[in-house]
Specification:
The complex is a heterodimer of chains A (615) and B (169). Chain A has 615 residues and is α/β, with parallel strands linked by helices. Chain A contains 25 helices and 18 strands. Classes of the chains: A alpha/beta (615), B alpha+beta (169).
Amino acid sequence: MTKLNLSALDALREKETARLNNPDITRLLICGGTGCHATGSIAVKDALNHEIADKGLEDSVKVVETGCNGFCALGPLMVIQPGGIFYTKLKADDIPELVESHVVNGEVVERLLYKDPATKKRVARLNDISFFAHQSPRALRNKGLIDPEKISEYIARDGYKGVAKALIDMTPEEIIQEMKASGMRGRGGAGFPTGLKWDFARQSEGEIKYVLCNADEGDPGAFMDRSILEADPHCVLEGMTIAAKAIQARKGYIYCRTEYQLAIKRLGIAIEQAKSHGLLGKDILGTGFDFDIEIYQGAGAFVCGEETALMRSIEGKRGMPRPRPPFPAHKGLWEKPSILNNVETLSNVPQIMLKGGDWYSSVGTETSKGTKVFAISGDVNNIGLVEVPMGTPLRSLIYDIGGGIPKKRKFKAVQLGGPSGGCIPEHLLDTPVDYEEIAKVGAIMGSGGVIVMDERSCMVDMARFFMDFIQDESCGKCTPWREGTFRMLEILEKICAGKGEPKDITDLEDLSHVIHQSALCGLGQTAANPVLSALKYFRAEFEAHVNEKVCPAKRCVPLLKFKVDPDLCKKCGLCFKSCPADAIDWEKKQVAYIHVDKCVKCMSCFDKCAFGAIF
Amino acid sequence: MCSNDKLCHEDITHEDITNDMLEKIDAVIQTHKKTPGAVITVLRECQDIVNYLPTPLIDYIAGRMNLPASEVFGVASFYSLFSLKPKGRHTVKVCTGTACYVKGIREVLSRIEGEFDLCEGETDKDRRFSLQGVRCLGACGLAPVMVVGEDTHGEVKPEKVVQILDNYK
């Protein structure tokens, strides 16, 4: 491939756009994200290719494997263009019928369409599905639309137009000015203004500077960075190159979790293609600007999401944070001025260059501009990735887009911000997603994990879960995180085991405040947030565990009695059949009886009983 | 610290490291030796070859890369990817992220532990399975999630998990 200059890039874009928009070509866009791979999309793709070849349709029908579509729970997914018809839960066996009916005869296959959980009706078009209809994709603008392993498809969707503008027409100061005007704040969690961060690094003196991309998505329940890297790796490379021009760096690293193998593979392909097209490496687009990117695989440490720890890790050391200042903008990787931006932040940069900071800031709230990607999961009907304008109420995220809670269960809390965040109860669901508003109610925006919990979740147990996570992930350097969270975990385990004392609750609060004030890094300072928010909104549940030795959500096994309520028992025998320990007596038309001495407390009977008769 | 390559080579004799493996290990070290900060990459690639990192191998890598053994050991013991103990033929990674927890991974984990008589973080006697509780795998849409070797299994229920694992001999 010859290296492109601006006019060659524009010519390639024109040609590719015409190819992709050709109305005579049917494009079968099969999702190839991690989720759909796990549910069998590769077999579906093979079946599609086979069927298309069999029918001799290769010239008019193209099978394209895209990146993650975001609606992972219903995979394997496929969108057929033109028309935007959306098929879910495909199997290889469905393909002959689908090709014959839809592709050849133009008739939609009803049974494979999305079924709305509320109305129970089938919906054919992607854009008519409420999960997608309420979204405004910017960071995710290319998801499910292009083949992430083909740079030409990215170029056709205005790819590398932003970097061309930044490299040819803009000075570093102008780039930073545009970023400042956009109001973009770091999407990794802390929400620091991106333009400001770049400006500090630009002003730092030094021949060698680094642009780093944080793809070490460690927050449990957040998977937007994985999705962006899998679906649209070039937008991250383009964003990094623009950042490099802004701070005058020549070298960049993408620090990616080793668990994200598909993302690493696609990033590798993208880097190679960008280099061979002259869009990365030496003399980019013939402008004389050099910038190279290397992928660095992490090795599994949550704390490496913290910027100074991440830089240590790239240096080949134990990923332990260090006190700031000096800030990385002055002394970062290898002691050189560096900027670290999250994947989602960088993926927005090309569009900001192209359309301007004012375009970006035209949506959002006073202090939080643009859109934010959220990963909705847990006890909610529509699980997946959504991108909405800042300011959207949490209720809309969970009910309009998420489709509400399954099986008519009651909403209990939504966890935002991962291990640094908190649980938000029902009465605060109208809180808009906005850095400041979310912080006011005791959570943080974080990287955007939204985990919905129904009435079956115990908030004491969730607090214990987060404390278990966070104490395990301490790097060991500062005492508050290392020892403080360990003590908190001990107390929470004691409470969940039914051995809590009233003093434990105040001890938890005291320890939380000490850790908040004295831990070394940002992750440590926020480590107690999940406990504090649970205590704030669900204190009664803690008190029930401690004072009455009862777990109201029936989640803490040592507090359960495993008895059958004869009034509620419908004598169906499901509990008897599910018991692996022969601990249940039951005969037809008889109330079941549990032998406590044989019971292994595995919860099988409890889960099976549809009438809540076991407590 | 070791300055003599030949001596180093003789330094390492270990039942789990064959000569073939040693050649590959040497090639890995050779490729990355001059790259600053490459020790994590070298450890990862060496672990891929041997399946875990025996202490003599850590000493060997340190010597060949001209780094203090304590520093390399410090890195190897810090990151959860590295195992200092032998692993089973199949690594079972059970996601213990929030979404999987809410969706019942705890019950899945205890079913595996009971059925195959092994605890989280351990390998069974036949070295068939290593059971690892891992942090969020980013496949929350399929929660609860378990990864066996390279295969991701979504919506794993306690009553199905034994059946899935029976396919891995």
